[in-house]
Amino acid sequence: IDWKRSGEYEDIWYETAEGIAKITINRPERRNAFRPTTLFELQDAFNRARDDGDIGVIILTGAGNEAFCSGGDQKIRGDDGYVGPDGIGRLNVLDLQVQIRRLPKPVIAMVAGYAIGGGHVLHVCCDLTIAADNAVFGQTGPKVGSFDGGYGSWLLAQTVGLKKAREIWYLCRQYNAQQALEMGLVNAVVPLERLEEETVAWCRELLEKSPLALRMLKGAINAVSDGAAGMQQFAGDATLLYYMSEEAQEGRDAFKEKRKPDFSRFPRRP
Ligand code: 2NE
Q1: Ligand 1 centroid to residue 262 C-alpha, Å
Q2: Which of 118, 233, 235, 266 would you call most buried, defined as having the most Cβ atoms within 10 angstroms of its Cβ?
Q3: Which HAMAP family does the UniProt entry name for this protein (predicted)?
């Protein structure tokens, strides 16, 4: 696959090919730990992929084979969050998690090596996860003085069950790719050397499917676990579909033409 890189980023790469956007966290010297800049750049890249009508699926990954992402960069962690050049303490990975959930295109985590801490939560937030056979999963919060009580906890619990989620968080153990597969934490385990090839194959399969059907399914599955915020997203999608109908367009046209709308030709469905 012939990736085309674009954008001026310091901590990430943004690449596209064949309707796929690949977003790579590029801080391998820190096992792809994120700092505020990384997250701002990731948000920008995900927005680009969302707005680009040629893109139907997004891969999130980490540079190199050692790590997908090791979470927040503990070396720039201040007393109230992760601190960038502006001196402000932030937990802006939470904004990125919400963005991935709301983005109406499938996002696939492509995991080689460690998906740990806040990096583990990122893969949990993605729609699908393809793991290399060297992947390692786990949370570290209670060890390093942190926790994620949002998606990191209850979405994980929905994914692997309450008992397993408690074990993962309370004990901070690490799990290999096969164990992750057995607990439903990942969709597939593939040899490291075939990780991208297999992930792209999944992307190509997704690209053959109806974009609106995928959008509605993502919204529907997330609506159950996101409560009112999920319903807000799903309701927005219902409005989108309605706007695309002649019935809704009659209302708009009548207003513009300063006449009474005529909805009589539209059926009252059972
Ligand atoms: C990821 C892991 C298990 C890898 O171990 P290993 O043995 O393969 O590598 P090593 O030697 O530990 O790491 C290589 C280099 O990367 C740095 C290390 O410090 C080391 O550099 P030097 O010190 O030798 O120069 N590095 C790795 N992870 C880093 C990190 N997160 N921040 C800064 N530098 C890092 C092992 O490295 C590990 O356990 N890493 C820490 C994982 C962790 O605890 N992450 C934070 C969880 S809290 C969080 O992410 C969070 C949250 O809970 C809520 C909101 C926001 C964030």
Answers
A1: 63
A2: 118
A3: MenB
